[in-house]
Design a protein that fits this description.
Layout: E1 35-38, E2 43-46, E3 55-56, E4 194-196, E5 200-201, E6 205-210, E7 222-228, E8 231-240, E9 246-255, E10 259-260, E11 263-267, E12 464-467, E13 471-473, E14 480-483, E15 489-492, E16 501-506, E17 516-519, E18 529-531, E19 537-542, E20 546-548
Length: 549
């Protein structure tokens, strides 16, 4: 089924594309004569205003485009105008060639009107719509308006509070109950004070000793090992085993000298030993009385009435809208969608009749031909056979050309006759080639161009020099200078001509300890350059001073 679009030779249907993410292709009706594309079926549809899903355009069945329809028959050609045959005037004898100017061209006859153009065939389906480009970033939000908020209305007065209920009477206190049994004694606190009988000398460094077990020492605590007030050691606990009492202390400071085997060990700066616990007093014998019954709660007073709500204040005027933020940068244009398959070719409209050919205007008089310029020199041509003498040109003047009669309508073209057989190819012998013309004389030799600059000379075999002393001055013949000396070396590089190159190489393999100084102006430094890379080398070229390359 094809779309029913009015066949109006003037009206056209313009197309545009947009994407509808919420339409159902199977039930979509759309606007009458609007065209859309369904990617699920790879088809175009046109709306007739009522049919759900639209009407498929052309031979739509998915896959590639349909085959091209047959070309419509060509309309009949209009009748040709009659061919006029005006009488030709008598041809006069040819007169002498005149030298007058060319006459003006005659006015052309009017052109016949063009026949009507046949109706255009239906347009093929449009190609797939290109993908929608990504959305550009959102521009910055404009400034918030500066209008003030209206004042809040006054709060209504609070209603009066209800009266407090009467408090109930307090109950009678009960007798004290008997004292409970004494709880179990708590666990002893952390203990640090202990003794050691190891024989130790007062000195710094790690000290190993055995102390009491079950103590609370931990690594990195400061401890003191004391014999008396004048002989003791202070250090940091390295390790302690609470099961065996083995301890290691890294002594940092000492007081006194000597070796002792009776030591008191404790935290450095710890509090003194805990004194003996005093005797517990006798427990009282009086029984605790029972708790009295709680009196009843008084009744809650009535809640006062809520005061009326104050009137709402008038809203403040809305602040002016802030200026709009700059527009975001436009997103990249999406890639162009693939070009849709070419629609079927519409039938060719019937050709309109050919308009009658206008009358041909009369031909203007031919002006006299101007004199011909002298011919250029002709190259030598092979000898030509003799030509007979030309007869004398008649001297009579050319008669005026008769007016061309109106052109008659063209008659119907007759059927083309059968083509005759091709005649046999002539086999005549080819004529002899003419003799070659004389060669022209040679032109004068051009002046010799200026000579190019001389290229640099090839190195070929270069001169090498071995330096085994602490000083050396570069000689004019030096190119490669190897240095093998057990000590510092100074190589003096004097000024020279531009373009000269030298290489200085450490052959001792020890210039990191015995530097090689290239003394001279090198890279604009008058102090030269120190080579301190074992087996290293520097190459230099002279151009207004030595340059490292």
């Amino acid at each position: 089924m094809s779309a029913n679009i009015p066949n109006d030779p003037v009206a056209i249907q313009k197309l545009f594309t947009s994407r509808d993410n919420y339409a159902n292709a199977n039930t979509y009706v759309g606007q009458e004569q609007r065209l859309w594309y369904n990617p699920a079926t790879n088809c175009f549809y046109v709306s007739d205003g009522v049919t759900p899903g639209g009407i498929p355009v052309g031979n739509c069945g998915g896959g590639g485009g349909g085959s091209t329809g047959a070309t419509g028959a060509t309309g009949p050609q209009g009748p040709a105008g009659t061919n006029g045959v005006g009488a030709t005037g008598p041809i006069g004898s040819t007169g002498a060639t005149g030298s007058g100017s060319t006459g003006a061209t005659g006015v052309a006859g009017p052109t016949g009107s063009t026949g009507l153009t046949g109706p255009t065939g239906p347009q093929g389906p449009a190609g797939d719509a290109g993908g929608i480009g990504s959305t550009g970033p959102i521009g910055a939000t404009g400034l918030t308006g500066a209008g003030t908020t209206g004042a809040t209305g006054e709060t209504g007065p609070t209603g009066p509070a209800g009266s407090t209920g009467i408090q109930g009477a307090t109950g009678v206190a009960g007798a004290d109950g008997s004292t409970g049994a004494t709880g179990a004694t708590g666990s002893p606190g952390d203990r640090y004070q202990t003794t050691s009988s190891n024989t130790l000398s007062i000195a710094t460094g790690n000290v190993s000793l055995t102390v009491g077990t079950g103590l609370a020492y931990s690594v990195a605590q400061d401890a003191i090992i004391a014999y008396d007030i004048n002989n003791h050691m202070v250090g940091m606990v390295e390790s302690y085993d609470p099961l065996t009492g083995a301890m290691v202390i890294n002594v940092a400071t000492i007081e006194g000298t000597g070796s002792y085997s009776t030591w008191i060990v404790n935290l450095d700066g710890a509090q003194g030993a805990v004194g003996d616990t005093g005797a517990t007093g006798a427990t009282g014998l009086g029984a605790t009385g029972a708790t009295g019954i709680a009196g009843p709660s008084g009744a809650t007073g009535l809640t006062g009435l809520t005061g009326p709500t104050g009137a709402t204040g008038v809203d403040g005027a809305t602040g002016a809208t802030g200026p709009q933020g700059p527009a975001g940068i436009a997103g990249d244009i999406g890639a162009t969608g693939p070009i849709g398959a070419t629609g079927l070719t519409g039938d060719t409209g019937v050709a309109g009749p050919t308009g009658a050919t206008g009358l041909t205007g009369a031909t203007g008089l031919t002006g006299a031909t101007g004199p011909q310029g002298p011919a250029g020199d002709t190259g030598g041509i092979g000898a030509t056979g003799p030509i007979g003498a030309t007869g004398l040109t008649g001297a009579g003047t050319t008669g005026a050309t008769g007016a061309t009669g109106p052109q008659g309508a063209t008659g119907v073209t007759g059927a083309t006759g059968v083509q005759g057989a091709t005649g046999a190819t002539g086999s005549g012998a080819t004529g002899a080639t003419g003799a070659s013309g004389t060669n022209g004389s040679d032109g004068a030799t051009g002046a010799t161009g200026p000579q190019g600059a001389t290229g640099p000379a090839g190195l070929g075999t270069v001169n090498t020099t071995l330096v085994t002393t602490s000083t050396y001055t570069v000689q004019p013949s030096d190119y490669y200078i190897g240095v093998n000396y057990n000590g510092n070396v100074t190589i003096t590089v004097p000024t020279t001509t531009d373009g000269r190159m030298i290489i200085i190489k450490d052959e001792s393999g020890n210039c990191s300890n015995n530097p090689i100084l290239a003394l001279g102006t090198i890279d604009n430094d008058i102090n030269g350059f120190n080579l301190q890379i074992n087996n290293g080398a520097i190459a230099m070229i002279y151009r207004s001073g030595w340059r490292i390359v």
